[in-house]
Amino acid sequence: MARLTIFGAGYVGLVTGACFAELGHDVSVRDIVQEKIDALRRGEVPIFESGLDELLTKNAERLRFTTDVRDALEGAEFVFICVDTPPLYSGDADLSRVWTVIDELPAETSATVVMKSTVPVGTGDKVRAALDARGLASLGYVSNPEFTAEGTAVRDFLHPDRIVIGAFDDSDGNAVEALHTGIDAPVVRADVNSAEMIKLAANAFLVTRISFINEIANVCELVGADVLRVAEGVGLDHRLGPHFLRAGLGWGGSCFPKDSMALKQLAANSGYHFQLLNAVIEVNELQKRRVIQKLEKHIGKLRGKTIALLGLAFKPHTDDMRDAPSLVLASRLLAEGAEVRAWDPVAEPELQGVTLFDTPLEAVTGADAAVIVTEWPQLTQLASEDVRSAMRHPLIVDGRNLLDPAAVRAAGFAYEGIGRAVSPLDVLPETAEREPELGR
Ligand SMILES: NC(=O)c1ccc[n+]([C@@H]2O[C@H](COP(=O)([O-])OP(=O)(O)OC[C@H]3O[C@@H](n4cnc5c(N)ncnc54)[C@H](O)[C@@H]3O)[C@@H](O)[C@H]2O)c1
Fold it and tell me: How many whole angstroms from 118 Cα to the centroid of ligand 1?
């Protein structure tokens, strides 16, 4: 069994650390945020990730947490870089935290450096050159991108679709591959540039599928088709498959927006206009805003109206608010002059102008519309008598096609999904008295 040091106790670092400990390795996790490390030492997990708590507790004997670099690196054979690489204003990935880690490695380090953070193609070459320049030429360098999805990250890590290993030197790649013994998955061995590109291309392809089905949904609305049936029929084609064909109000999160933007900029910086990816990103920006038109269709201008946003995290089973579509939606509603109430079971963001409530029922009380922004399972029973009588207008805009439109309508609500056929039942009596179109 090996000794691993993980830099970064975030979503990826903690899952990586806990899972490698589960595989039997000794792991020390280093972060620069003292409170995070203190919490982890007390046995508290600073993020919400299904199954992580249990795994950290189960493997506590093989896990150490520290803020001190030398302490973290004691006896380390592998250094995993799992720090954040957020977008810069230009859309390029900000690698400053990666470079800090490289600079922090003491001269006597003998560990192989493994990059799990998502980085632009060419980063490995630059890190290799920087290590060489620092007299650390003997250190191995391996790109081992991470494909886990938040909410299912522990399962994804232990049962991945594939493990990607890009190395300058085969023996370094072999050593990193051996760390994964116990995980049954195909291993893709590649050069470092290709390994880096696999990660970016995979995310770009996933968002392309979502934006594609969202556009199909938008056309479905115009021509009277139902995108759920369309996606089912399309997805059963073995050449296409069913995944990432769920229409909704747009994709977000800590990875998709920044990684697609980073690939777009990487291409542009290299002299290539990535036309398809540009369109995919733009479709998503427009998709997040379409909810406004759907609300206005039913309740008229939104100034003075009360809208309840149900679900704020970028997807269910996580508390991650990074680039969540709810942020754009809340801002658009506030800009239209609406009052915004919101509920999420785990995310508790401080959103200026938005009032948070503990239950969906409290959030929808007095609301002119409820918008399902994140498909939390708690919302499957939303179309209840309690909710209907608590709302000023019984209108549900189902931004994730979570509910059965017929059942919602039968329960006395107007329903608007994404790419669903429209029903005459959906016209609220009040829409006849819409406010006049006042200029703003
Ligand atoms: N979140 C995901 O599901 C996911 C999935 C695949 C890949 N990734 C990629 O993995 C990387 C990490 O993502 P994340 O979501 O875990 O980020 P995160 O923000 O949750 O965690 C990063 C952690 O690194 C710490 N850090 C910063 N500088 C450090 C340093 N010098 N030493 C030690 N720790 C330091 C931060 O304090 C933070 O706790 C990113 O490049 C991301 O794109 C993320």
Answer: 9
